[in-house]
Amino acid sequence: MFRTSLLTLFAASFIVLSAFRFDDNWLDKIVAKFEAYQRNSPQEKAYLHLDRPYYSAGETIWFKAYLINSGSHSADSVSQVLYVDLVDKTTGKVVLLKKIEMIGGLGEGDLALKDSLKAGDYTVRAYTNWMRNFSEDFFFHRDLPIFRAEASPTVYPSNADDIDVQFMPEGGQLVMGLEGRVAFKATNILGKGADITGAVLNQANDTLVGFSTLKFGMGYFTITPEPGEKYRIEVRKPDGKYAKYPFPEPQKEGILMMVDNVSNKENVRVILKHNKAVSATSELALIAQTRGEIMYAAKTSMAKKMSLFSIPKASLPEGITQLTVFDEKGLPVCERLVFVNKNQPLSLELKADKAVYKSREKVELELTAKDAAGNPISGSFSLSVTDAGQVLEKEAYGVNIRSYTLLTSDLKGAVEQPSYYFDAKNPNNVRDLEVLMMTQGWRRFSWKNALEDSLVANKYFVEEGISLMGKVVRGNKKQPGKVKLTFMLQSNGKDSTRAVFMGETAETGEFAALNLDVRDTTNLLIQAVSERGNRNFDIVLDAFQPATVTVTKVPFNSIQFDANELAEYLKRADEYLQIERKIRESREKMLQEVVIKARKSDQVKKDSRRAIYGTPDASIKFDQINSSGAMTIFDVIQGRVAGVTVTGSGFNRTVQIRGSANFSGVVEPLFVLDGMPVDKASIMNIPPVDVEAVDILKGASAAIYGSRGGGGVIAILTKRGGENYDWSKDKEPVPGTLVTKLLGYSPVREFYAPRYDKAAPEHVRPDFRPTVFWAPMIQTDKEGKAKMSFFTSDAQTQLNLRVEGMTPKGQFGTATTQLKVQ
């Protein structure tokens, strides 16, 4: 199911491993199982750039979708369907769902919020069908508050004294008699980091070590637990009160891990200590893997009680590397994450033609993209321009495409202000990032899964198009055997395009039509017939079920606002939505008053299915008289058109139009079903009662079809294929037929951005849009340049501009700038 692009990381891992020479095979087996697991379970990442951080009911969420290969971080061209949904965090229900077409790992779309949507905390998710094989934590998540203009925002409590503190030994465990480190994380009722101080005390109430937070409620301390001692932890909370916490229970015997990724710029140093009584030949091993590729593997003798491993940072890719220690039995016993920051983001620059603008004035922008070496580079980017008076940026270092792909997408749990760790101007970001690696849990990969003797089969497949699955069943509940199927698709759009294709079920009656190019909501007709012509079947489609939603009991959204902060935004949102409702009501009223009078003959349009050939040489109109008792279409045609001969019986028919033969024998005509060329078997399965007419083209009339029409053309026009026929309104179901709707790719809407250099009636409306401009598909050329323009609104304000994007090879960048309107 996978193309080469999703599996290239495995070839690289094989090359790296071939350089290692192991003395025995226990580590070889671990590596082999790891590689097999990764081949079976390669991963994807999805990211959405949203136009702003919050919305009101009745507004539209605009987004750019990026789909990324988890291993190489290059654009993922395998999955071509991305599901984007909106989840009510209170109930866990999916209230909106879109299918986004991904081309080369890129897509765009929107979520139109209903006027009736209740205010509250919501989450936007993005995932592929393949990603559903793994934890929901792998999906992209973005918390969004949604307000109502007439309702006041939630007032969040200011009391931050109710805190929770977790203590986590480095590597996973403490060992008696060995010096180790313990990381901790303190969070308040809002889920934010809380500043604390504390101490570790022994049974005699002696203070052994004190500690305090460094950043975002995180920190660590060093301690050597001694046998026979009991320890406790006391923490001084922000209100001055003390709280007691249990000390992590140390192991009497085991392996301890300490990592230094700060003091040495060239190497990640890993110190392993143990107090186990083992033989002199026993060994332990260290494996470093990054996003499914083993970057380092080495063993050492356990005859020494302490070992030092040095991993060159130059050999590790940018991002999170997982360090795992295996004991003498080949079992994983210690684990730690490290982050390697190459400091090589894309350099993005947004330059406007002016620094200050007037209301409704045109802004000319130029985007320049360069790689870390300063060379111009081509990539795909998205730009949002928002009114700073309405759209508040509550997090100075919020999530962006770089912080998500390199950091938070590979961590479990929320990371506060993730972009903080990528600010090169911050002198403590390396230290604070190291503490984050000690406190956050790894979730993308578990050695337990990789070391299983057998791999679990993946339930969900890779979608390279819209999927359609179901089952044909018999009334007596017996297996139907193989059943021939005819699928007819007709879009509801202006062009009313049609498609026809054939298929066959398995013996159980199950079927699947994959990789379909279906747009918006499409009419679907499926006909089932056995080889003996039996049509007494029921057709049942598998209903699409959104991915499972896990409701977590988080008291509040990750972004908090108070009523005063959003007063301007809520006022403008209410004004805009009232105008929109009035326009909608006016439009609906006008449509109701329109009356069209015309004779029926004037309303009849020429059938577009005959557009390619016009008037046929002969035509047979099917009715109850000539189709009564007929098993196939050919039973009706036979003997009714001069020059058309039908020989054979049952489903073994040969059709010939006079003069269509060569030295090889009979040349059968081209069969066309509702304008689409099909094979003869497709025609045999169509019930005559479903046919409106059959057109015959001979000789020169068939020349328009080229060499395919050398034997003439027989064009079948079905009743359901007619321009004015609505399958969904069939009053009586036909045996062996299913008529329904199929949800395809969500149509792409264009963001409304008025052009004030050209007069238009709608310009009399006040313009105080919170999102002034949204451009999801900006492509820089070989010079690294792209130009765009928009007009300012009526607001005299500051405009915040944010651009995000990536190159096809997985380089990420983001940039912000401001413009003044007065």
TrEMBL record:
Question: Can you name this protein?
Answer: TonB-dependent receptor
Protein localization? Cell outer membrane
Signal sequence interval, chain numbering:
1-21
Provide the alphabetized UniProt keywords: Cell outer membrane, Membrane, Receptor, Signal, Transmembrane, Transmembrane beta strand, Transport
Q: List the molecular function annotations (GO) for this entry.
A: siderophore uptake transmembrane transporter activity
The answer on whether this UniProt entry bears the keyword Transport reads yes
Ranges for domain TonB-dependent receptor plug come to 619-713
Q: Which GO terms describe its cellular component?
A: cell outer membrane
The protein's topology relative to the membrane is:
Multi-pass membrane protein
Q: Which family does it belong to?
A: Belongs to the TonB-dependent receptor family.
A Pfam family the protein falls into: Plug
- Tell me the Gene Ontology biological-process terms attached to this UniProt entry: siderophore transmembrane transport
Q: Matching PANTHER family, A to Z?
A: HEMOGLOBIN AND HEMOGLOBIN-HAPTOGLOBIN-BINDING PROTEIN 1-RELATED, TONB-DEPENDENT OUTER MEMBRANE RECEPTOR
Tell me which InterPro entries the record gives: Plug_dom, Plug_dom_sf, TonB-dep_rcpt-like
Q: Which SUPFAM superfamilies match?
A: Porins
